[in-house]
Amino acid sequence: MRKMAVLFIFIFLLVIVTGVLITQSLVVMQRIAHLSDVVGRVQVKAGGQSEFGPLVGTTRHVMAGDTLSTGPKASLTLNWIDGTRMKMGPETVLTVLKCQLNKSTDARTSVFKLDTGQVWIRILKILTQQSKFEIRTPTATAGVRGTVFSVKVAPDGNTQISVYEGTVSVQTTSGSVQVTEQRIARLGRSGSSPQLAQFSGPDHQAWQSHLSNLGPYLQITHPGADETISGDSVKVTGICEQGATLAVNEQTVIPRPKGRFSVQLPVSAEQPTFAIRAVATDANGQTTTLTRTLRLRATGGG
């Protein structure tokens, strides 16, 4: 009788634990980053794998556990649906340690490890108190709730954190420091206290060359570049960042809930080519512009 009672309690506890795990899996959702602007040699090592492989075919997204590596002249951009964007520069190795959303609390947890190279980050949506966004380097951890900043790890292990907008909290073995807008924190390999400095002229110039890559996410999925079309209209489809406004050939387009959009544009047969220009603008006024030039197929006359 006692054995039956123990067995019953064990089964009861097992059911509870299983229910909690199932509920947790439904509440906590893994976030996936879609890749864009891929230039040069990029390799990926999926979670659980020991070797890097080329980024080919439809492998255009990454998730927790994946590591990305860029070559000497390579770069790419990681895009999340909430508007968070991260650009990787050349010779950069970045690992996605954790990337998830708690749907019940709207808490977002994103943790990355930057071994070497440089990343530029744009977090448009202000994170909740329960949220966390961190970039870990060999000597420091940079944490933010909503800002535009970059983190660079030099080959010698020195770390530089540059804040364009907002504030970044930098944690080292010597303590923490707040790096405010238009300031740079430099840390040596020893993890000593950061050395803070105001932006210089070259710092401002360097940021201007990257701001265009940190605008709202925008992708035209159809038609493809240099595609040949026929008829008196063309259907343009794509994906736009949630919350951004979108205009296609100066026509306002309202994306669907997940950012997908579709618009039919009239085409004049009098020109040999047809240009598509899509412009997305976020809440901060940053824009992303994509263009397509299509060839028109001549129709036979009578």
Task: Give a written overview of the molecule.
- This protein has 2 helices and 26 strands.
- With 302 residues, the chain is mainly beta.
- The chain has an 18-stranded mixed β-sheet that branches. A 5-stranded mixed β-sheet has the order 20-26-25-22-23, with no helix packed on it.
- Strand 3 (42-45) and strand 4 form a beta hairpin.
- The longest helix is centred in the N-terminal third of the chain and has 26 residues, at 2-27.
- It is globular, with a radius of gyration of 24 Å.
- The model is unreliable at 17-26 (pLDDT under 50).
Query: How many domains, as an integer?
Result: 2
**SSE string, helices as H and strands as E:** HEEEEEEEEEEEEEEEEEEHEEEEEEEE
Distance between the termini: 96 Å
Strand content: over 45%
The major beta sheet can be summarized as: 18 strands, mixed
Low-confidence stretches: 17-26
* Name of the CATH first level of the largest domain: Mainly Beta
How is the secondary structure organized here?
Layout: H1 2-27, E1 28-30, E2 33-39, E3 42-45, E4 53-54, E5 61-62, E6 67-70, E7 75-79, E8 85-88, E9 93-102, E10 107-122, E11 132-136, E12 141-144, E13 148-153, E14 159-165, E15 168-172, E16 175-179, E17 183-187, E18 195-198, H2 201-211, E19 218-222, E20 228-229, E21 233-240, E22 245-248, E23 251-253, E24 260-266, E25 273-281, E26 287-296
Parallel strand pairs: 10-11, 20-26
Antiparallel strand pairs: 1-9, 2-5, 2-7, 3-4, 3-6, 6-9, 7-8, 8-10, 9-10, 10-13, 11-12, 12-15, 13-14, 14-17, 15-16, 17-18, 19-21, 21-24, 22-23, 22-25, 25-26
